[in-house]
Amino acid sequence: MVVEMLKSLKTAKVQVEAPNWDDRAWTVYLRGMYKDAGLQSTLEYVTKAGEQGSYESSVLPEKSDKNTDLHRLLVAFPNGSIPITYKESIDGRLLSVEILSK
């Protein structure tokens, strides 16, 4: 799913910076984010992922300008979080996405 989503973004001319992993590598990584989590905890995280607007992003004003806003959000998992940074134009068009960037 992640690989297909990243391909779709690139096809839509969105600049993407993410690990160049195949399906298997993403699966191994994401399974590790749930490793040793109990059923209740896993269900809570999976449910949150399916809720619209469940992750709150914050604007990074020091990296935004009059034409674009840079946002950052953390997608939480039982064993850590995945940072996502994305840039939008003032009209709401997605320009770039960085996943697991430093």
Structure write-up:
By secondary structure, the protein is of the alpha+beta class. It has one domain (2-99). The chain has three helices and five strands, in the order αβααββββ. It has a five-stranded mixed beta sheet with strand order 1-5-4-3-2, covered by helices on one side. β4 and β5 form a beta hairpin.
Layout of helices and strands:
Layout: H1 2-11, E1 15-17, H2 23-33, H3 39-50, E2 58-59, E3 68-77, E4 80-89, E5 94-99
Parallel strand pairs: 1-5
Antiparallel strand pairs: 2-3, 3-4, 4-5
What structural class results from the helix and strand content? alpha+beta
The chain-level mean pLDDT equals: 90
Strand content: 25-35%
Number of helices in the DSSP assignment: 3
The radius of gyration is 15 Å
* Total domains: 1
Biggest sheet details: 5 strands, mixed
Instruction: State the strand order across the main sheet.
Output: 1-5-4-3-2
